[in-house]
Amino acid sequence: xxxxxxxxxxxxxxxxxxxxxxxxxxxxxxxxxxxxxxxxxxxxxxxxxxxxxxxxxxxxxxxxxxxxxxxxxxxxxxxxxxxxxxxxxxxxxxxxxxxxxxxxxxxxxxxxxxxxxxxxxxxxxxxxxxxxxxxxxxxxxxxxxxxxxxxxxxxxxxxxxxxxxxxxxxxxxxxxxxxxxxxxxxxxxxxxxxxxxxxxxxxxxxxxxxxxxxxxxxxxxxxxxxxxxxxxxxxxxxxxxxxxxxxxxxxxxxxxxxxxxxxxxxxxxxxxxxxxxxxxxxxxxxxxxxxxxxxxxxxxxxxxxxxxxxxxxxxxxxxxxxxxxxxxxxxxxxxxxxxxxxxxxxxxxxxxxxxxxxxxxx
Amino acid sequence: xxxxxxxxxxxxxxxxxxxxxxxxxxxxxxxxxxxxxxxxxxxxxxxxxxxxxxxxxxxxxxxxxxxxxxxxxxxxxxxxxxxxxxxxxxxxxxxxxxxxxxxxxxxxxxxxxxxxxxxxxxxxxxxxxxxxxxxxxxxxxxxxxxxxxxxxxxxxxxxxxxxxxxxxxxxxxxxxxxxxxxxxxxxxxxxxxxxxxxxxxxxxxxxxxxxxxxxxxxxxxxxxxxxxxxxxxxxxxxxxxxxxxxxxxxxxxxxxxxxxxxxxxxxxxxxxxxxxxxxxxxxxxxxxxxxxxxxxxxxxxxxxxxxxxxxxxxxxxxxxxxxxxxxxxxxxxxxxxxxxxxxxxxxxxxxxx
Lengths: 362, 353
Hints:
Chain A is mainly beta and 362 residues long.
């Protein structure tokens, strides 16, 4: 363990510099171990540390950032094939420089190189439409690379026509709502301001106001997990339309039904844009034996419809589209309930877990 | 450097190995040194036998200035690359644990020993886990490449033999609150609840719980929950049964443009207080007596002016508290962004009670 002794910072740095120039010219530089593009370990020659048993390595050696006095990085030392291996608790950081110190002297140093293999991330923003309801509930940001989490509101801004930033529009959530790969972020507009009659709604009003033209701006300074910035800044300009309080109804969908023996797509038009993520998750096609028809769903027409591409040719017979009730429009109204249920009004439909729409392939 | 794990008899259902923890979103302690880890990325709750089970009646007051710098340096990175995700105190040993998330996606679990940080060993430990994502089995079969439904863990607690988990889906704005019996079993006998918030008898919406605590009020066990958009709501714990549609009663709306962060229950001179940290408000202090006195109103419909009436609360002279945790019955710890920009972990004096 490093023992603190009174001495000036300058003297310490000088002695460290002298030592690192003079010491061990014949030794190989430390070798970084990689796993999934992350620097998970460092190994260096056992001969750099003499007269110390394997068991007591951690008391004599430490790996640290070039800070003063050096703080040991948490991790474990071991000896393998004449080399000392250090596994830090978390991987070393790209672009940072590290010292290996024994008895107050730098015996080796290394820099973790910046990522040159990964690509700068691109971004797609959902919903795609440029007209959105006043009570829009959420947006999705879909990136091509895993992104740094927990910083979204530093990089996302909503601007009005005068270029002023609207504050308190998005919900500040920690942890943020990312998919497992950290490529899709769900961004909620503050629901407390959308829900009618709650104090935030009464005092601050709806986050968006009908008739406004707004711009969502995403800064290029947002970095991927490997430290690469977005390939450019992104912006989406949209017009704010009336509040949407109607629940979507699958009975209003129009279908273009393919013919049997073909693999032509089934085309469904919703007549309004639906939630990007839920649309891809809540629809299923069943045949007359209630078996799932295998195929692929693709969103079309700015999320106002889908095409279903079957894996196998259609057969003559009855089919149905089965949809989970949690499918929502852009304002959070699902197939069963509006986002804001008015208890004084009779429900428009019976609340169910699934809704079905039948069709026949000729 | 790596904290050693003292092997004690593992709780029922635990196996020895290395849990596949993908992220550490929330921490909570059970009894006997069992630490629960809420993992949003794998939609699971892990129970780890830390072996930290030496009893200490009193916690030691701490003051660690620039705590974030200290953590970053111990993890070999710059402070802008880390975020402190949660802090928990082992109620047995009174030791402080801290979950850290790094920009590169990795996470670390640390324990404070005096002025030092040690890594908590998560390899070859006794553990068990339970999944909190009820994805239908057929979900993965028919289509590929679809966005996945994520259930992020917003808060975690242990009360009355049950692990309580509040979550938020990335797809619907609904509450996923679960009460899971511990030790975990293979049977899915956890309750998954729909929780609705009724505003002024007129409108009703599903709402996710942001943070919660559980406690007795007038001899009855309650879940005291604070919502993402509307602060304080009470649910009798006995009403929380699988498959039920439970409506909570709002007892206070504590201000617009604010989100609750943490809630704890403290005691002084036999009287209990609820402390609540907020994103853009000071720490609030609510007397449990005030909640008890509200009991009569809780069963009747919420009145129009109820929101502005609400339970009385005091704003403490303590702002920008990002983590709030009970250290022992009379002491608590805060992680606070000070006016000079430093993030300090410290124990406020007992006069705050």
